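>> received
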Amino acid sequence: MKTLRQLLSGEDVIQLAIRLGLLAFLVYWTFILIRPFVPILAWSIVLAVALYPVFDLLSRLLGGRPRLAAAILTLINLAIVIGPATWLGLSALDGVKEFAGNLGAGSLVVPSPPEGVKNWPLIGPQLYELWTQASSNIRAALREVAPYLKPLAGTLLALAGNAGVGTLKFLLSVALAGFLFPYGSQLVEAGRGFLYRVVPEQSEHFLELGGATIRAVSQGVIGVAIIQSLLAGIGFKLAGVPSAGLLAFAVMILTIVQIGAAIVLFPVIIWIWTDKDFTTALLLTLFLGFVGVLDNILKPLVMGRGLTTPTLVIFVGVIGGTLAHGIVGLFIGPIILSLAWELTVAWIRTDRAKAESLPG
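>> returned
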């Protein structure tokens, strides 16, 4: 059997090397050109997959008119992005800039408890003393670590400065998803064909698993977190809480990484009771309490299956996505990483099952 070197002449080897080099250069150049659009394309595909059941239902209600259904759904999504999401984002940006400024100047402070807390029945004096001690200790700790936190201020300001570009990416992603809706079945067939060439025996299973994972994370994690943060932001604004947008943004982050909104909501509720009259404080507490448990109500309704992705994977996806792609990466990161995790685990399980089924 002759080797490839023996079959090819010196001139053929040179031509093959030139062709491979040109192909590699073309692939690299193509990647450089499309790299800025990768987050936009990824988010539009996620939106298309996550909202396809809604699009399909709307299309059938309109008498089988997919283009009209896609246009209506796109307008609704754009209204959400331009309206409440932009309002929350701008409020959060103001809070981030203020926080980053104080962080850079080393002037972060923790407020002392209002005097009115002492007059609360049963828990007032104890809460006032505990709050005072915590405030003093945190102030002292912040003074110690302030020099080490100053580099973080630059990172926060850089993220805030890219918010305009991030908003534009969101709008483009929503518009592109609208174009993808009518071609959902063709895209599914294309994905099935690609997977068949990669994993022919498990292509159908991996396709279903990929779609289920995208919908579970985008609807049950990202979607619920956005709804929860928007409602929390409305409550914070009605209560006149300082840095309401930043606190609502913190609610969204904590909900995405599965920690929960109680860390933010509980101190805010305490502040409301120190600043508002009884009726207003009670109504706001009931509203924010409902917001706090909203994820426990919505997740079972919107998630078709239990989320098996570890919290650490989602957390790494949030941090890595934000650092790599800014505000859009905050949402894309956990979805893509969860998808990669689920497919990898399924692949390992399939190979292990095959190995165990072999004789001997």
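>> The mean pLDDT is 76.
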